Amino acid sequence: MPQPTLVWLRHSLRLRDHPALVHAAERGPVVPVFVWAPDEEAPWAPGGAARWWLHHALQDLDEQLRERGSRLILRVGPSAETLRAVAEEVGADRVVWNRRYEPNFAHRDDEGQAALQAAGLETYVAESQLLHDPDGVETTSGGPYHVFTPFWKKVRKENLLETGPPLDIPDLPAPEAWPSSEPLEALELRPEARDGVDWAGGLRDAWTPTEAGGHDRLQYTLDTVLGDYDTDRDRPDVDGTARLSPYLHHGQISPRQVWHTIESWADDTGRHGHARPLLRQVVFREFAYHWCHHYPDTPTETYRDKFTDFPWRDDAEALARWKRGETGYPIVDAGMRQLYETGWMHNRVRMLVASFLTKDLMLHWRHGAEWFWKTLVDADLSANTFNWQWTAGCGADAQPFFRIFNPVSQSERYDPDGTYIRRYVPELADLPDDVIHAPWQTSAARLKALGVTLGTDYPRPMVDHAEAREEALAAYETVK
Ligand SMILES: Cc1cc2nc3c(=O)[nH]c(=O)nc-3n(C[C@H](O)[C@H](O)[C@H](O)COP(=O)(O)OP(=O)(O)OC[C@H]3O[C@@H](n4cnc5c(N)ncnc54)[C@H](O)[C@@H]3O)c2cc1C
């Protein structure tokens, strides 16, 4: 009987379209292993919301494997050492995995690979996290892309995306004897297991964190979202985007599966024009990874040098109010509360709250990126880093710093009936449409008649947007 192969699982928590699993199954017995080593990933070990998701993703994967006569081996400890020990226990001669491209993780994987090889184990690294090879796409003058549109044109025109048909689930031969495994609870991923408090009720209500849940959401996207995606994608008050980001982040669905399914839908229905805007966003994810791969310091270092001297403020109370969704700007507060309650926030509102933090409050973008890291179920080092630097005006292809979102006009435009605000800021639910976006502009008497006293039921705005904008622009003048 051939020696078993270990499949080291990290962000590919699925059975379908899993190149490392297919590779292992072609050789003989397969031992799927997940090693929990948060210290190795510090400071970017999964945050609370992502840990909750991870718990359920691992549980789901184990159940699916058991239905096929296999199982998931869980271990806690340093990755390479632990894998070596499992390999010895089960007599495996090879460890295989799907490559991770995020800065911070990529070089740790390289170190892990070197350690495994030094211990006499064969290794094989497959590709599945991205549709493109970040080192294989270059501008005409050489080097990485900094602007999305030329990147998009290049990968499409030169066929540089790996969009072939996804792989089927292979048969998974079992080893003669299974190695020992920790119980899932030993990883202490769920909040009640860690700190005795169950704050995950909102996450449970909002998500089905399984591989099947990802495929259901993709099917829903085809049936319900795609037709109006281009017009609805900026509307937080409607369910108008794919909501696939946590499934993509945890690898419960691969970008190739998403691409292939959408393109097949377009071929079948002839609606290529409807599919294209969403496919473009999927490639936007590639672009974020491309940029972070080439600028691996960006999770902590500001990309544009001139912003290093920007006079960011140091104001713990302002930061705390932003986190709690108590800024007094209803659309900003709705976004921050949606984030805390459901672990996700609509993209348009992510941009608004990020602009508010970095420009109206002039707090460093890293504070925002760190809070998102803790609270997003889709917290992803490349996407989060790229988008925070982009919104703050200091990244690649950035929104210029002087373009500062007005939280009131954005609210009126993208949440015209206040449906989104009413959902997440219930103390304002009874305000009429012409008041809800900026309640402080209405007289105290009228507000009182409507059941709201500012400063008691809901905060007054913590800054005056027009004044804050002028201050931010003046600060920008000092570094531009
Ligand atoms: C400040 C800020 C922080 C962000 N942090 C993250 C993060 O940690 N993780 C994350 O996955 N996304 C992040 N995003 C990007 C974006 O908000 C989410 O990917 C999107 O809201 C996910 O919802 P969806 O699946 O419905 O998106 P859809 O609009 O349906 O798009 C489909 C897919 O395309 C990709 N995509 C779409 N927009 C972007 C984008 N701007 N950047 C990168 N990929 C994109 C995602 O994988 C998404 O699932 C951030 C955006 C901002 C402004």
Summarize the structure in words:
The chain has 480 residues and is mainly alpha-helical. The protein folds into three domains: 1-128, HUPs (Rossmann fold), CATH 3.40.50.620; 130-163 and 209-294, Alpha Horseshoe (Serine Threonine Protein Phosphatase 5, Tetratricopeptide repeat), CATH 1.25.40; 305-477, Orthogonal Bundle (DNA Cyclobutane Dipyrimidine Photolyase, subunit A, domain 3). Helices cover 49% and strands 5% of the residues. It contains 23 helices and five strands. The chain has helices at residues 19-27, 38-41, 48-67, 79-90, 106-118, 148-157, 191-195, 201-206, 211-225, 229-232, 245-249, 255-269, 272-294, 316-324, 330-342, 347-360, 365-375, 381-392, 407-414, 419-424, 433-436, 444-449, 465-477, and strands at 5-9, 30-36, 73-76, 94-98, 122-126. Strands 3-2-1-4-5 form a five-stranded parallel β-sheet, with helices on both faces. Helix 4 crosses helix 5. The chain is globular, with a radius of gyration of 24 Å. The mean pLDDT is 96. Flavin-adenine dinucleotide is lined by residues 233, 241-245, 248-249, 278, 281-282, 284-285, 288, 347, 350-351, 354, 372, 376, 378-380, 383-384, 387-388, 391.
Distance between the termini: 67 Å
Low-confidence regions: none
Query: What is the name of the CATH topology of the largest domain?
Result: DNA Cyclobutane Dipyrimidine Photolyase, subunit A, domain 3
Order of helices and strands: EHEHHEHEHEHHHHHHHHHHHHHHHHHH
Cofactors, ions and other ligands in the entry: flavin-adenine dinucleotide
Tally of domains: 3
Which structural class best describes the helix and strand composition?
mainly alpha
Q: What is the CATH domain class of the largest domain?
A: Mainly Alpha
